TrEMBL record, chain A:
InterPro entries: ATP-dep_Glu-Cys_Ligase-2 (IPR051680), DUF403 (IPR007296)
Pfam families attached to this UniProt entry: Alpha-E (PF04168)
Name the UniProt record assigns to this protein: DUF403 domain-containing protein
Annotated ranges, domain DUF403: 1-306
Automatic annotation (TrEMBL), chain B:
SUPFAM superfamilies associated with the record: Glutathione synthetase ATP-binding domain-like (SSF56059)
InterPro entries: ATP-dep_Glu-Cys_Ligase-2, CP_ATPgrasp_2, UCP005522
Domain Circularly permuted ATP-grasp type: 81-457
UniProt protein name: Circularly permuted ATP-grasp type 2 domain-containing protein
Origin species: Paraglaciecola hydrolytica
A Pfam family this chain is assigned to: CP_ATPgrasp_2
Length: 309, 484
C-alpha cells in the first residue's frame, strides 16, 4: 500500500473522529450550563482550552462568550479544529482514497460535509443546536458503520482505525485535563451537587455516562471517573482501550515492532501511575506525559509508514 | 409513438444511422425499428436508467472551483448509440495502424538520424520551431523504437461519407474510460439490442493496455510493477486515471509517491518502504514530468525520472517527446510520412491541408480564404484561427496579409460538414454532429479499440464536441452484419 494512501486513510479517520468529538463536547457543555447556577461560571472558555486554541481564538475574539465560541468551534474555517474544517479535511482525504474506500462511505462523508456547511448556523440557537450536532454525530457513526461493515479489513482499514483511536486517546486526555482543572482542587474536598454534575458532564462528553453507571453503581466520584476513562479496557473511549486498539491494528502491519514497544511504554506508565489517586497538579503532569507519549507513538508511525526516506 | 424517423431531417448531411428521412442504413435497421416502437414513457424511463447508472458508477469529469474545491460533473450521455458497420471498421482499423506505425518511425527518426530531413521530405526549420521537440531526447531510442504507445486519433466524416483523420493525440490522450463505461451503461439500458445484434465487445482494452505496459518492463519478471501517474484529484481526467489503474490492478500514484534513487531506478513509497517501479503510465505532460530537466517549478513530476528512463531502468508510456508528432504542421505531412517510411499509400486520408509555405498551395488559400479554415502552426486551443465562412471580408483580408508575411506559420483546410447521428432531445430525436476517437496501442503488436469514444455536440448545429463546451458522448457499436 502506498504511503500517501495509508496516511490519507489515517487522517480521514482522525478528522472524522475529531468532528464527532467536538460536536459531543459542545452538546454536553450546552447542557451543563443549563444545569449550573450563574454563580459557577464555567462558561465556554474551557472548550477553547480543551482543543488548545486559546491563542488563535483570542486573536480574533475579545470574549469567550457562547456565540463566539460556538462559531469558532463549529463554523470558523480559519480554525483548523472547527467541525467544518475537520469535515472538510476528512472529505478531502476521503476524496484522494475514493478508490480504496466503499463508494457509500465516500458519499456519506460528502453529504455530511454538505449538511454541516449548509446548516452550521443552526448551532447558534440553543433550540436547534442539539439537533444539528446530533446529526453530525449520527452521520459519523453511520460512516464508521459502513466502513466496518463493507470495507475489506485490510491494511488500509487498519490505518483508518489507528487514526480514529489516536484521535480518541488524544481527546479523552484533553477533556480530562481541562475539565478536572476547573473542577475539584484535590480529592479530599467535599463534593457539592454541582461538582457531581460536572463530573457527569465529563463522562457525557465521552458518551461514558451510561456505561460508567453500569460499571460503577456508586455515586459519581472523581477517582472512579478517572479510573473508568483512563483504565477501563472494555470501554471503547478509554485511553487504555484506544492504546490497545492501535497496538492491535499495528500487529497486522509490517515493521511494527518499534512502534508497539513505544505503545507498551506508554501503557506501562498508564497502568503504574494509579491516576485515580493523583492530586490535580500531579494529574496534569501525568496527562502531559500521556500526551507526549501519544505524540511519540504518532511520530513513530509517521516515520515507519508515511515519511520514511 | 415518440420517434418518427420520417420527420428526422437528413437533407444534405451524412447521417450515421439513416440514408434519408425514414430510411435507416442496413446495419441500423433493427435499432431504428426498436427505437420507433418505444413510447415516451419508455424513453423517459431509459434515460433515467442511464442517468442513474452513470451516477452509480461515478462516471464523472472534474471541474475545479475555488469556492468548493473540486466538483464532479457527469458528462452528458446520449442513449442512442452510434453504429459503424464492421466491414467499414476493418479498413479504418488498418488505416489507423498504418498511421501510428509511421508516426512512431517518424518520431524515432527525428530524435536520431533525421533521415526524413536529409532526404528533403520534412523541412528542418519546422522542427526548430516545434515546441514539443525535446532536445533532452536526442540520440535516445526507447525499446522497439516505439514512442507513442497510446495514441488517440480523432476521426470525422464529411457529408460525402468520407472518413478523415482530424488530428492525432500522441501525448496523453484521454477518454477511453468513457468508451468502456458507456458500454456498461448501454448494456443496462438496452440489453435486448445486445441479444439481437452482433455488437463487438470493447472491454478488452484494460487487459490489452496492461499487457502492452507489462511487456515494456525493463526487468524480466513475472509481475512487473506498473503504476499510473496522475497529476492528482483536481485533474479533469482523474476519474479516468483512477479507473484505468483499478481495471489493470495497477497502483495509482502521484509525483510525490515516486522517488528516483542513486541507482537511477524509480521507487514508490509504500508502507513497507521503497518498492521498485518498472513501468510508468504517465498522465502528466512532458513539461511537468521531471523538474530536474523540464519545468523546475513542477511539483507534479518526479525529479530524476528522465535519468532513470534514459538509463533504461524504467519504461515511460508515452515516451517523453512523443508530442513532436502531434502539432498542426506535422499533421499536414503525415501522408508524406507514411509514404516515406512504409512505402505505402495512406489508407485514411487527412483533411486536405494546404501548407502556406508552398507557393502553389498558398495561392489557392489566398484565393479561397472565404470558404476555408486557417490555422496557425504553433498555436493550440483554437487561438489565432480564421473560420472563413463565419468571418467578414475585413477579417479575410487581415489573414491574407498574415499569411503573406509569415507563410510558414499557417496551414488551411476546407470547412468540413461533419456527419450527424440521431440524438435524444427530450423524447424526440434530432441530428447532432459527432466525431470518433479510437485508441491505438503500440507495443510488439499494434491494437486498436473496437470503435472508440464517440463525442457528440449536444447543441443544435454546433460541431464542438469537447466536454467543457456542451459536448456529450454516445456508445459506439461496431456491428457485424455477417455474423448475425
Amino acid at each position: 500500500m502506498l504511503s500517501r494512501v495509508a496516511n490519507n486513510l489515517c487522517w480521514m479517520g482522525r478528522y472524522l473522529e475529531r468532528a464527532e468529538n467536538t460536536a459531543r463536547l459542545i452538546n454536553v457543555n450546552s447542557n451543563l450550563l443549563l444545569d449550573l447556577p450563574r454563580s459557577i461560571s464555567l462558561g465556554w472558555e474551557p472548550i477553547v482550552d480543551i482543543l488548545s486554541y486559546r491563542e488563535l481564538f483570542y486573536s480574533t475574539h475579545k470574549e469567550a462568550v457562547e456565540r463566539n465560541v460556538i462559531n469558532f468551534m463549529v463554523a470558523d474555517q480559519k480554525n483548523h479544529g472547527s467541525i467544518i474544517s475537520s469535515l472538510s479535511a476528512a472529505r478531502e482525504n476521503a476524496r484522494t482514497v475514493r478508490e480504496i474506500i466503499p463508494r457509500e462511505s465516500w458519499e456519506r462523508i460528502n453529504e455530511l460535509y454538505s449538511y454541516a456547511k449548509e446548516n452550521c448556523q443552526k448551532a447558534q440557537a440553543r433550540r436547534s443546536r442539539y439537533g444539528f450536532l446530533s446529526e453530525i454525530i449520527q452521520s459519523n457513526q453511520t460512516i464508521t458503520g459502513i466502513l466496518a461493515g463493507t470495507m475489506t479489513h485490510d491494511e488500509g482499514y487498519e490505518f483508518l482505525r489507528i487514526g480514529r483511536n489516536l484521535e480518541r486517546a488524544d481527546m479523552t486526555t484533553r477533556i480530562i485535563d481541562v475539565r478536572s482543572a476547573s473542577l475539584l482542587q484535590d480529592t479530599e474536598t467535599s463534593q457539592s451537587a454541582f461538582e457531581n454534575i460536572q463530573w457527569m458532564s465529563v463522562l457525557k462528553s465521552l458518551t461514558a455516562y451510561q456505561m460508567y453507571r453500569r460499571e460503577v453503581r456508586l455515586r459519581i466520584r472523581r477517582p472512579d471517573v478517572l479510573k473508568f476513562l483512563l483504565l477501563e479496557d472494555r470501554f471503547p473511549r478509554s485511553l487504555l482501550h484506544a492504546l490497545r486498539q492501535v497496538e492491535h491494528c499495528l500487529k497486522t502491519l509490517p515493521n511494527h515492532e518499534e512502534i508497539i514497544m513505544q505503545i507498551r511504554v506508554v501503557e506501562t506508565q498508564l497502568l503504574d501511575a494509579n491516576p485515580q489517586s493523583l492530586i490535580q497538579e500531579k494529574l496534569h503532569e501525568f496527562i502531559d506525559d500521556m500526551q507526549l507519549g501519544l505524540n511519540t507513538i504518532f511520530d513513530k508511525i509517521n516515520q515507519t509508514y508515511f515519511f520514511h526516506t | 409513438m415518440a420517434i418518427r424517423w420520417g420527420n428526422y431531417k437528413v437533407a444534405n448531411l451524412h447521417d450515421e444511422l439513416l440514408r434519408a428521412s425514414g430510411k435507416p442504413r442496413a446495419y441500423a435497421d433493427d435499432l431504428c425499428s426498436y427505437l420507433r416502437d418505444l413510447s415516451d414513457a419508455e424513453i423517459i424511463e431509459y434515460k433515467a436508467a442511464a442517468d442513474s447508472a452513470i451516477h452509480v458508477m461515478g462516471i464523472t469529469f472534474r471541474v475545479y472551483n475555488d469556492e468548493e474545491g473540486s466538483i464532479d460533473r457527469a458528462w452528458p450521455f446520449d442513449i442512442i448509440p452510434r453504429l459503424i458497420d464492421k466491414k467499414e471498421w476493418v479498413d479504418i482499423e488498418i488505416g489507423l495502424k498504418q498511421r501510428v506505425k509511421a508516426l512512431n518511425m517518424f518520431i524515432d527518426d527525428l530524435y536520431n538520424a533525421q533521415n526524413i530531413i536529409k532526404d528533403g521530405i520534412f523541412p528542418a526549420d519546422l522542427l526548430d520551431k516545434s515546441k514539443n521537440f525535446l532536445l533532452e531526447c536526442k540520440g535516445f531510442s526507447p525499446p522497439l523504437g516505439v514512442w507513442a504507445h497510446i495514441c488517440g486519433s480523432d476521426l470525422v466524416r464529411d457529408n460525402q461519407g468520407v472518413v478523415y483523420v482530424l488530428e492525432d493525440n500522441l501525448r496523453v490522450p484521454s477518454g477511453v474510460s468513457y468508451m468502456l463505461e458507456n458500454r456498461q451503461v448501454m448494456k443496462r439500458v438496452f440489453p435486448e439490442m445486445f441479444e439481437k445484434l452482433n455488437i463487438l465487445p470493447v472491454d478488452d482494452y484494460p487487459s490489452d493496455l496492461y499487457d502492452m505496459l507489462a511487456a515494456m518492463s525493463p526487468r524480466d519478471i513475472a509481475e512487473p510493477e506498473i503504476v499510473v501517474l496522475t497529476p492528482g484529484i483536481y485533474n479533469s481526467a482523474y476519474f479516468e486515471h483512477a479507473y484505468l489503474a483499478q481495471q489493470m490492478g495497477a497502483e495509482l500514484v502521484e509525483g510525490n509517491d515516486l522517488v528516483v534513487g542513486d541507482d537511477d531506478c524509480v521507487y514508490m513509497r509504500t508502507i513497507n518502504g521503497l518498492s521498485r517501479v518498472d513501468v510508468v503510465y504517465r498522465r502528466i505532460d512532458d513539461w511537468f514530468l521531471d523538474p530536474e530537466v523540464f519545468n523546475p517549478e513542477s511539483t507534479l513530476g518526479v525529479p530524476g525520472i528522465m535519468r532513470a528512463w534514459k538509463a533504461g531502468n524504467v519504461a515511460l508510456a508515452n515516451a517523453p517527446g512523443s508530442g513532436v508528432a502531434d502539432d498542426k504542421v506535422v499533421y499536414a505531412f503525415v501522408p508524406d510520412i507514411i509514404k516515406y517510411y512504409l512505402n505505402e499509400e495512406p489508407i485514411l486520408p487527412n483533411v486536405p491541408t494546404y501548407k502556406c509555405v508552398n507557393e502553389k498551395e498558398r495561392e489557392y488559400v489566398l484565393e479561397n480564404i472565404a470558404s476555408m479554415v486557417v490555422k496557425p502552426a504553433n498555436e493550440s486551443g483554437g487561438y489565432g484561427m480564421l473560420i472563413g465562412p463565419h468571418s467578414n471580408a475585413k477579417e479575410h483580408e487581415k489573414f491574407r496579409k498574415l499569411i503573406q508575411e509569415d507563410p510558414r506559420n499557417y496551414v488551411a483546410q476546407p470547412m468540413l460538414i461533419l456527419s450527424t447521428a440521431p440524438t435524444m432531445v427530450d423524447t424526440k430525436v434530432e441530428p447532432r454532429h459527432l466525431d470518433l476517437r479510437p485508441f491505438i496501442l503500440s507495443g510488439k503488436d499494434v491494437k486498436v479499440t473496437t470503435g472508440g469514444l464517440t463525442r457528440v455536440a449536444m447543441i443544435r448545429g454546433s460541431t464542438v464536441v469537447n466536454s467543457s463546451q456542451g459536448g456529450g458522448s454516445k456508445d459506439t457499436w461496431i456491428v457485424d452484419m455477417e455474423g448475425s
